[in-house]
Amino acid sequence: MEIFSTTIIYILLFLTTLVYYSISKKQIPIRKQKQIPKLPPGSMGLPYIGETLQLYHKDPNIFFSDKQKRYGEIFKTHILGCKCVMLASPEASRFVLVTNADLFKPTYPKSKETMIGPWALFFHRGDYHYRLRKLVLSSLSPDPIRKFIPGIESIAISTLDSLAADKNKVVSIFRGMKKFSFEVGILAIFGNLKKQYKEELKKNYFIMEKGYNSFPTNLPGTSYHKALMARKRLDQILEEVICERKEKKMVENDLLGNLLSLKNDELSDDQIADNVIGVLFAAQDTTASALTWILKYLHDHPKIFEAVKAEQKEIYMCNEKGNKSLTWTQTRNMPLTYKVILESLRMASIVSFTFREAVVDVEYNGYLIPKGWKVMPLFRNIHHNPEFFSEPQKFDPHRFEVAPKPNTYMPFGNGAHSCPGNELARLEMLILIHHLVNRLKWEIVSSRDTIQYSPFPIPYNGLPARFWNEPDNEELCN
Ligand code: HEM
């Protein structure tokens, strides 16, 4: 009986407490409860098309910077059929790309994913992405890439020779740089690939690339259809290369070798092929666009050009006028040239922004980023913010004598998807500049200050120029 009455007392106590809490909770004034986050400021434009027309009508950089001026560092818009939140502050970029990266996933249009290959690492996250990224990083880090220096030099020299083959001929700098970065990409992925394979890869890759940016209609005769066909042929060529390596039990220390080295065929041939094409794709236009801007900035700033030339001439003379190959240590000791690269990457901001998609509702700084919305960290806006880079429109490599504030300089992105090819990109740019300033002179033919997008920003018309050989210099180093 006693146990029974104690139990009753406990139940009553429990119920009273429960009723008290539920009544008292209802009485908490709304203003004391947690604020419901609201959408960031901004405008969503017209139904369906949003603000896509404004984006294309203006230069995208101007579109984003106008918005930032009007709404601040976080704002919403609706472009290319997507509801987006744009982030123009270093903290917000870090929130999305680094500290809360698991709340966001990479996102690309389906047509682009089909073209590159759905298994390419940049479409993924989690374990698959982690394992692949480790392999790619281990193939493109300083240690493995130093062996490519002589190969990259010979590609640089032959690119420059063909640019300067006819002094009177106007050539597109961007096109020349694309050939260079493609060949370097092939070298890093396949080592010394047979000429026949290289030619076939090149031919089909260029057809694929043409269709990549075209309207995705898969009808015979369209660029998109031709590109899909070329992509299939690329798979066949890669299958042959992989088969040959497997049959001959070739163990190579290049990216393909590393992808094949996983035990128990952990990666299928399709997965390997998609990643080979993916890396080649990520490597080519980015580096070519960066180099084109570097040549423009050097041309437009004669004093900096002369100082870079003096730095490079000294190394050239020590290497018996280029008869000896550059060493890794020499490539790490080009301080001014390196700062020119850093400043060109800031000024041009080749990858002006990136896309992610919120996988859940996310709250940032009191604002709601709804599930399914895209978020876009705007690298270019950050690189051009006078708070972080004084006189941002001025080309001033010396500003890099002092390291930029954390998370304000992201030409290669940030976090789990940041660029694993940045060391290779740096190496190939240094090598090309070394041979360019020592061997050639050039004159830009049209210097219209218009920017074109292909899809990365490039100077108008690929920067048409004339190149010719620099007369030999007699001094040798002591
Ligand atoms: C100047 C040249 C380059 C620039 C400016 C650049 C820039 C970038 C940026 C900003 C990202 C991150 C994109 C994001 O977060 O969504 C990225 C990713 C990537 N880059 Fe580069 N890149 C360059 C050259 C290269 C080269 C030479 C390679 C390879 C040889 C390469 C391979 C990749 C790959 C595979 C990814 C995807 C990484 C991942 O998703 O984990 N890039 N790059």
Automatic annotation (TrEMBL):
Belongs to the cytochrome P450 family. Its cofactor is heme. The chain crosses the membrane at residues 6-23. GO terms for biological process: abscisic acid catabolic process; response to abscisic acid; response to water deprivation. Its EC number is 1.14.14.137. It catalyses: 2-cis-(+)-abscisate + reduced [NADPH--hemoprotein reductase] + O2 = (+)-8'-hydroxyabscisate + oxidized [NADPH--hemoprotein reductase] + H2O + H(+). Heme binds at C419. Keywords: Heme, Iron, Membrane, Metal-binding, Monooxygenase, Oxidoreductase, Transmembrane, Transmembrane helix. This is (+)-abscisic acid 8'-hydroxylase. Pathway: Plant hormone degradation; abscisic acid degradation. It is a single-pass membrane protein. The keyword Transport does not apply. One of its GO terms (molecular function) is heme binding. One of its GO terms (cellular component) is membrane. InterPro entries: Cyt_P450 (IPR001128), Cyt_P450_CS (IPR017972), Cyt_P450_E_grp-I (IPR002401), Cyt_P450_sf (IPR036396). It is found in: Membrane.
